[in-house]
Predict the structure.
Amino acid sequence: MKFDCKKLFQEDFVAMLAPSYVIDFPANKIVGMLKKLGFTNVVEVAKGVEMANNISMEYIRSHSSQKYFISSHCPTIVALVNNRFPELAEFLMPPRSPMVEMAKFCKIEFPKSKIVFISPCYAKKNLEAKNHSELIDDVITFSELAELFKEHSIDIETDFGFQRFDVEGESAGRKFAVSGRSDSAQYLKPMLKDEEILISSDIEEILHNLKLAVGGNLSYRFFDILSCRGGCVGGLAIVSRDLPVEQRIFKVEQNS
């Protein structure tokens, strides 16, 4: 269902922006564009990456004897494990993605506001966010946001003046959109060896290793896996689908 922007002028709304937004929207204008649309506050989900990493680290530390740890950041991967590899479902880590952690933060920081996640991913909207309706009131994909800007005559060529995010993320958090670039292996090193960590956004490689994990014949213990090529930069709700993944990665890293 199409997001009704009239709501934005009836009560306070916070826009939580996923790190890959720079692929489709200008970093120096996006805050002004969203506030022109009617959002009261605009925050970076990149801030939630550090929170989610800390939770993952503590979970692994307190479950050190567990055979495998499968990251639950990607809802498509979670669905894949549950549906095709149910024997591995017990190894899915608690569903504490940067989106969820940032939503919790915003509920405290902006207690009277509704929370809207702006995402490059249909699965975040159709799968994960629905399981956290107490935190996230709505999800707008990048493609839907582009249509809303067009409908309300908000042009990227307009000079909105530089406006800072109301809550900013760190460089490492902004790189979260790129598979393996958010230093995920670094925070795990005190507990896991390099050869025990699989970082992949290659679905064939992921399927191969999950099959091996079912048989128990695998050296990997931690699976940092994402279903879209390159990571969230490959999200299917991105407008710039014709832009090569390498150029999308460059845009994200340039903004980090």
